[in-house]
Amino acid sequence: MNGAESLVQTLLASGVRVCFANPGTSEMHFVAALDGHPEMRCILCLFEGGVSGAADGYYRMTEEVAATILHLAPGFGNAFANLHNARKAQSGVLNIMGDHADYHLRFEAPLKGDTLGVAQAVSHWTRISASAGKVAGDAAEAVQAARAKGGQIATLILPANTAWEKASGHAVAAPAPVPQRPSQAEVAAAAKALRQPGAILMIDGPALWSDLGLLARRLTKACGARLMQPYFVSRFRRGAGAVKIERMAYRIEDNLRLLAGAPSLVLCGTARPAGFFAYPGLPSTPDDPDTRLVELCAREMDIAWTLQALAEELGEAKLTPDDFVQPDRPALPEGPVTMAKVGEAIAALMPEDVVIVDEGITASAHVAPGLQRGPGHDVLTITGGSIGFGLPNAVGAAVACPNRKVVVLEGDGSGMYTLQSLWTMARERLDVTTVVFANRGYQILREEMAAMGVNAVGRNAQRMFDVEGPSLDWVALARGHGVEARRIADMAGFNAAFAEAMAQPGPRLETGRQVLRLIRGAPPTAIRQPGSAPCCRAASPGCRGNSGGASP
Amino acid sequence: MNGAESLVQTLLASGVRVCFANPGTSEMHFVAALDGHPEMRCILCLFEGGVSGAADGYYRMTEEVAATILHLAPGFGNAFANLHNARKAQSGVLNIMGDHADYHLRFEAPLKGDTLGVAQAVSHWTRISASAGKVAGDAAEAVQAARAKGGQIATLILPANTAWEKASGHAVAAPAPVPQRPSQAEVAAAAKALRQPGAILMIDGPALWSDLGLLARRLTKACGARLMQPYFVSRFRRGAGAVKIERMAYRIEDNLRLLAGAPSLVLCGTARPAGFFAYPGLPSTPDDPDTRLVELCAREMDIAWTLQALAEELGEAKLTPDDFVQPDRPALPEGPVTMAKVGEAIAALMPEDVVIVDEGITASAHVAPGLQRGPGHDVLTITGGSIGFGLPNAVGAAVACPNRKVVVLEGDGSGMYTLQSLWTMARERLDVTTVVFANRGYQILREEMAAMGVNAVGRNAQRMFDVEGPSLDWVALARGHGVEARRIADMAGFNAAFAEAMAQPGPRLETGRQVLRLIRGAPPTAIRQPGSAPCCRAASPGCRGNSGGASP
Question: Between 20 and 30 A from A90 (CA), which of A152, A243, B134, B146?
Answer without folding.
Answer: A243
